[in-house]
Write a structure and sequence with these properties.
- The protein starts with a helix and ends in a 10-residue tail after the last strand.
- By secondary structure, it is of the alpha+beta class.
């Protein structure tokens, strides 16, 4: 252990240090979280063919064998589960998300917690998943696409700019803050190598700014869950105490009844009115996870309600024309509807947006996004090329199970792994034209059938090599 870390923790924990941190010498726990948009935990356990144990941290999660390789399992490609360190699945359910809510995951990459929130929404309401680091934001977008999330806005923004654009808009906000990563020492050698007291202070200051933005984003009566994967007092109990001192419009909620972990530590924060260390939750290595801290806060129902800024009027653009004189957007929408009536009739009457040659199905009740950097707002349906509609992989990952033309595979079907390698396969149940390729009813993208064979359109970057 780093000298600073060990000295600090021994001083705070005394004789309990050895008990709580001893498991760091053992192998890291592995876990999977089931995607509730695809199936139930019971159906997953019965059909995945993996030796699983229920997770103590989340009802939708399981502990997986040490030798489990999630990327080799077809159900992983189909977005049926997310490979996630067991204790990491604990925070998102504590938000109490229900269908129809407006939810923000402010530090969302790589997407495990966002996918949990999306599953709780069940396609109703809105999820805004944000990530400040551009490369990680793209990974977030890809993971939500794999999990079949159609009602998400993915942004690459600072929390402050989001708060300026959407003040008081959300019913729920999750802040899984960037932190010094002390809970990842066993799992990630880089966290061990880069650790220092200066890093702890830097992360604590960054998280404080993010929490202030989260407070602005939340509507009166809304709930904020704050979590970290570190043990540092400045980033955990002391962080929450300082937030409550800055924001008297918030009250802390008690997490003592969640059924996992242990209470927070009173000696890690100064006495602050309204703050209770015992109402926080800590997961130590001795509890079976890597290490997590969680607090839940509510904005008082009588807090002042912010107003959304007036939407900026976009600059006028010249409309493109196709060969028949129709505007480019109208032509794209018409091509989509013709395709949808044949393959996705339930989507044919949905409102669409047609930026350029693209066709996007926006989520219901999309807020004004101003000049935010948006990677995706809703479901990418496809694009029009040379007057023809070409469907997107994302469309079939979200809606493939409802396609009128499907090729039905199973885990034991040799064609399943061939498909994931990018090979053409024989068509048995699918007819000529575009088709969804599914494994056990879960979508694996799309192909095009001709002459009894399915041309593979599974993205090259996602294929399973070797």
């Amino acid at each position: 252990m780093p000298e600073y870390f060990e000295a600090r923790e021994r001083a705070l924990l005394g004789a309990r240090y050895e008990e709580l941190y001893r498991p760091l010498t053992e192998a890291a726990a592995r876990g999977v979280t089931v995607n509730g948009l695809r199936c139930t935990p019971g159906d997953f356990a019965a059909g995945a063919g993996i030796a699983l144990q229920p997770s103590p941290f989340c009802k939708q999660a399981f502990l997986a064998p040490e030798d489990f390789r999630p990327g080799r399992h077809p159900w992983h490609h189909a977005g049926v589960f997310y490979a996630q360190e067991p204790s990491a699945a604990s925070a998102a359910p504590l938000l109490g998300v229900e269908p129809g809510m407006k939810v923000c995951d402010l530090c969302a990459a790589p997407g495990g917690k966002s996918s949990q929130l999306a599953a709780a929404l069940q396609g109703k309401g809105l999820l805004l998943a944000n990530e400040y680091v551009a490369a990680r934001a793209e990974i977030l977008r890809q993971n939500l696409e794999r999990m079949g999330v159609a009602n998400a806005i993915v942004t690459n923004e600072t929390p402050a700019r989001l708060a300026e654009t959407l003040p008081g808009y959300f019913d729920r906000v999750l802040v899984d803050a960037p932190c010094s990563g002390e809970g990842m020492f066993r799992k990630e050698p880089a966290a061990l190598a880069q650790h220092s007291e200066a890093l702890v202070r830097q992360c604590a200051a960054l998280a404080a700014d993010i929490l202030d933005a989260a407070a602005e984003l939340l509507a009166p009566g809304g709930v904020l869950v704050f979590s970290t994967c570190t043990f540092a007092p400045e980033e955990d109990e002391a962080q929450v105490a300082a937030f409550l001192a800055r924001h008297p419009e918030f009250v802390q909620q008690d997490l003592s009844g969640v059924g996992f972990g242990r209470p927070g530590e009173a000696n890690r924060a100064p006495e602050t009115p309204g703050f209770s260390a015992a109402s926080c939750r800590r997961i130590w290595p001795a509890d079976g996870g890597e290490g997590h801290f969680i607090a839940r806060l509510q904005k008082r129902p009588d807090a002042p309600r912010a107003e959304l800024p007036r939407a900026e009027r976009p600059a006028k653009k010249s409309k493109g024309r196709d060969n028949k004189g129709k505007s480019g957007g109208a032509a794209s929408a018409e091509a989509w509807r013709s395709f949808a009536k044949e393959y996705f009739p339930e989507l044919a009457d949905r409102a669409v947006e047609t930026p350029g040659e693209l066709v996007v199905l926006p989520p219901d009740g999309m807020p004004p996004l101003g000049r935010l950097h948006v990677l995706r707002a809703g479901l990418m349906a496809g694009r029009v090329q040379k007057g023809r509609f070409v469907p997107a992989h994302a469309l079939f990952m979200a809606e493939g199970a409802r396609s009128t033309n499907r090729e039905n595979l199973t885990l034991s079907d040799l064609r399943t792994l061939a498909w994931l390698r990018g090979e053409e396969i024989d068509a048995v149940t699918a007819q000529n034209g575009w088709c969804a390729v599914c494994v056990d009813g879960f979508p694996l993208g799309c192909g095009k059938v001709s002459g009894g064979r399915i041309k593979n359109h599974y993205p090259k970057a996602l294929r399973m090599l070797g």
